[in-house]
Design goal:
Elements lengths: L1 H15 L5 E5 L4 H11 L2 E5 L12 E3 L7 E9 L3 H12 L3 E10 L3 H9 L3 E3 L2 H7 L23 H18 L11 H4 L1
Parallel strand pairs: 1-2, 1-4, 4-5, 5-6
Antiparallel strand pairs: 2-3
Helix pairs in contact: 1-2, 1-6
């Protein structure tokens, strides 16, 4: 769910104590998060084009005007090699704006974490702690039970939002594996 993902990104920034003015990233992976986060947080959004359009404004960064004094939050959907989010970072820095935080749903190779640590920019992969808590190298033993999920009612809904986001990614991943078995989660059976 896009709203849940955007709220998790906003929550990360709040917990870091980071103040920001505009949110964006490289088109196309960052677009929905840029717009969603901006709308929910009441901030400005921008997109970084892969190349200038060749007409109109002919700029790489469209949307909010960013420059010296603008505090920017970078977002992306999935980081594999880190190229897209690093390219967005470089373009934003060229404007004179400050990148004050960065977040993605998944960092497949920990490349973004290292890059942003080297730059001194707070970074968080939304699914990271879920991976560390629930992943079993080699799979679970045949007769073993799955780890019980904490079902708690509290004011902090972030852990449940993040589990929901991760579950949606898992379902899409499984559906794309190219097998003939049905893929889906029967939520009513789980309730």
């Amino acid at each position: 769910d896009l709203e849940l993902a955007c709220r998790a990104m906003i929550e990360f920034v709040k917990r870091q104590g980071v103040e920001w003015d505009a949110v964006g990233g490289l088109t196309l992976g960052a677009d929905q998060f840029s717009h969603g986060v901006a709308l929910l947080a009441g901030k400005s959004w921008f997109v970084v084009r892969k190349q200038p359009k060749g007409r109109g404004t002919n700029k790489r960064i469209e949307g909010a005007e960013i420059g010296r004094g603008t505090r920017v939050l970078l977002v992306d959907d999935v980081v594999t090699t880190g190229g897209s989010i690093q390219e967005a970072y470089s373009e934003v820095i060229l404007t004179g704006a400050d990148v004050v935080g960065a977040t993605t749903l998944v960092d497949r190779g920990a490349t973004a974490a290292k890059f942003f640590a080297d730059e001194g920019v707070p970074f968080r992969e939304i699914a990271d702690h879920i991976w560390r808590a629930y992943y079993i190298p080699g799979g679970k033993p045949e007769k073993a039970s799955y780890r019980k999920l904490p079902i708690e009612l509290s004011d902090d809904m972030r852990p449940l939002w993040e589990l929901c986001i991760a579950a949606n990614f898992v379902e899409v991943f499984l559906a794309r594996e190219g097998h003939s078995n049905p893929v889906g989660i029967n939520y009513l059976e789980k309730i």
